[in-house]
Amino acid sequence: MEKIIEISSLEELDKVAEAVIESLNGRTVVALDAPMGAGKTTLVSRIAALLGAEDDVTSPTFAIVNQYEGERTIYHFDMYRIERIEEALDFGSEEYLSSGELCLVEWPEKIEALLPDDTMVVKIEILSDTARRFVIR
Question: pLDDT digit string (tens) for 58-104?
Fold first, then answer.
C-alpha cells in the first residue's frame, strides 16, 4: 500500500515521520530516495526524535553510519560517498541491515543489491523551497 503526504513547511514533518513509523509493519530497513537537499536527514531527525532518541542527528556523510538510541537502536546511513558496493561490504553494511534494528538509508541506490526485498521506500519530491511530497511504499 502506498501513502502520499504533501507538506508545505517543516512544521508538518512530524506527520510524515509518524506515517513512516506506522507503515513499518515489521520492516526494519527504510530507503530514503531523494535528490540532494530534499530533506532526508531532517526526516531522519524527526523519526529518531519520535522514537525517543535524544542524540543530535547529523548527516553521516563522512562516517557513513551513525547510531542513535531511543526506544530502539537506529542506524542512519549516508551512502553518498560509496563508489563500489564492495566499500559497503567492507564496513559491515550487511550485518547492520540484517540486525533487526531500524536502518534509515540515504542514497540507497548505491547499495540497492544489498537491501532486503521488504525494504520500505520513502520517495521525497521537492515541490518548492518549503513544500515536499512524500511517497511511502
Answer: 887 778 899 999 999 999 999 999 999 999 999 999 999 999 999 99
CATH number of residue 61's parent domain:
3.40.50.300
- Strands annotated E in 2-131: 3-7, 29-33, 65-69, 73-78, 102-106, 120-126
β-pairing, 102-106 vs 65-69, is unpaired
pTM of the complete model beyond 0.85:
yes
DSSP string covering 103-117, please?
EEEESGGGGGGGS-T
- Domain of 109 in residue numbering reads as 3-136
User: What is the number of structural domains in the chain?
Assistant: 1
Distance from C-alpha of 118 to C-alpha of 116, rounded to nearest angstrom: 5
